[in-house]
Amino acid sequence: MEGALNASFHFYRGLVDGGAFEMTESDILRDVWDQEDNTRNDTREWLFAFLLMAYGPLEDGELSDYVALSGTDAGQALNRALFAGYNRMYDELSYALGLAAAQQMKTQDL
């Protein structure tokens, strides 16, 4: 959920930095928080679909091994590292998409 909210914030920042909108950081934060319920629902639906696709094909023993790994210090450190890298990449992509969208919004037909 945190990652989705951060990505939305970075998308808005790209739109603003790209010149599509004039918004303060407070305006952006307010808009992002105003969408929290929808973001939470979308994230929940995505997560359930992802888990079904990712773990559905696993045998029971494989899933048990993965759950056991996730409960260890090393497994939790690995999970934190993966999410930190993913969230950083997703924030950068969201910002770039905001910049690209801003460029498209500012163009006009000749």
Compact description:
This protein has five helices and no strands. With 110 residues, the chain is an all-alpha fold. α1 (2-17) crosses α2 (25-34) and α1 (2-17) runs parallel beside α5.
Descriptive report:
- There is one protein chain.
- This protein has 110 residues and is mostly helical.
- The chain has one domain (2-105).
- It has helices at 2-17, 25-34, 36-55, 60-70, 73-106.
- Helix 1 (2-17) crosses helix 2 and helix 1 (2-17) runs parallel beside helix 5.
- The protein is elongated.
- It starts with a helix and ends with a helix.
From the structure above, extract its key features:
about 110 residues
Mean pLDDT: 93
Q: Radius of gyration, rounded? A: 18 Å
Largest sheet features: none
Q: Give the beta-strand count.
A: 0
**SSE order:** HHHHH
Beta-strand percentage range: under 5%
Q: Count structural domains.
A: 1
Secondary structure class reads mainly alpha
Overall geometry comes to elongated
Low-confidence regions: none
